[in-house]
């Protein structure tokens, strides 16, 4: 049984889902066709190898993030913060007993921190250092993968669970796709949830990258070129324009990822409560 607050959130989430657009225009269609033709030039085996290696890279980053000591400290901090609402909480799964408002509070704390990290990272990467700019894409991926993992943890889903680890990657993929692809990807995510019952191992499709997701990577590469162009325009030896571009674009990406991940885990939490 949902509370009035949860029913209202459920209504707003359903309205938000309805507004996920699949509309395209001539420019986006032309761009998609250009990307498709560019990849069609490559042999099929080469294309498959590229996407497989990128999938392995993302999975390795996701797994490595969980091995660092700081990860466990952050998870423990979430649990300790949750104990302020309910002293009986002992592990992440116990967080599901909290109200949606309390869970939103925990998630918002993680979101605020990671948006700040993204802002600072974008500023540093665009400050004029070639080395820092070259690490912009890996650093941005790390920040946003961490964002999804800690939002999942804030709603009581243990990101170290093999199923949750892979699902978080799928949420990251969905959140970073161009908007015209997100409605279909959302429906695929929900189908996966409907087809599983308290899973531990992930049994769905493990593909993360493809031609659609390459739009995201290409835009980041274009951002790097623009930043390099504007780094020559300095005010008192500080590349102000390039720093503003880097900080603004990185913050926007993390804002989108955190907003989408929060909505997904809210929807999942409410869906599970409705089935009890």
UniProtKB/TrEMBL annotation:
Q: Which domain of life is it from?
A: Bacteria
Keyword field? Coiled coil
User: Matching InterPro entries, A to Z?
Assistant: EcsC
Q: Which residue stretches, if any, does this entry annotate as coiled coil?
A: 6-37
The record's Pfam families line, in alphabetical order, gives: EcsC
Question: What is the protein name stated in its UniProt record?
Answer: EcsC family protein
Species assigned in the record: Fervidibacillus halotolerans
């Amino acid at each position: 049984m949902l509370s009035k607050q949860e029913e209202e959130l459920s209504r707003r989430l359903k309205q938000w889902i309805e507004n996920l657009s699949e509309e395209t225009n001539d420019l986006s269609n032309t761009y998609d066709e250009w990307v498709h033709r560019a990849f069609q030039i490559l042999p099929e085996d080469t294309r498959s190898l590229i996407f497989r290696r990128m999938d392995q890279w993302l999975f390795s980053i996701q797994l490595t993030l969980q091995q660092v000591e700081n990860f466990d400290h952050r998870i423990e901090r979430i649990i300790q913060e949750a104990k302020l609402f309910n002293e009986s909480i002992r592990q992440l799964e116990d967080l599901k007993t909290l109200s949606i408002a309390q869970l939103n509070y925990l998630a918002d704390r993680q979101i605020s921190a990671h948006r700040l990290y993204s802002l600072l990272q974008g500023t540093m990467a665009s400050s004029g250092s070639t080395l820092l700019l070259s690490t912009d894409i890996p650093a941005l991926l790390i920040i946003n993968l961490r964002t999804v993992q800690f939002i999942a943890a804030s709603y009581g889903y243990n990101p170290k669970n093999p199923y949750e680890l892979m699902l978080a990657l799928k949420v990251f993929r969905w959140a970073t796709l161009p908007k015209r692809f997100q409605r279909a990807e959302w429906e695929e995510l929900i189908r996966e949830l409907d087809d599983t019952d308290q899973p531990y191992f992930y049994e769905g499709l493990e593909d993360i990258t493809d031609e659609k997701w390459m739009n995201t990577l290409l835009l980041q590469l274009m951002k790097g070129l623009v930043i390099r162009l504007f780094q020559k325009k300095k005010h008192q030896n500080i590349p102000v324009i390039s720093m503003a571009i880097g900080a603004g674009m990185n913050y926007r990406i993390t804002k989108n990822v955190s907003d989408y991940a929060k909505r997904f885990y809210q929807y999942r939490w409410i869906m599970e409560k409705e089935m009890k």
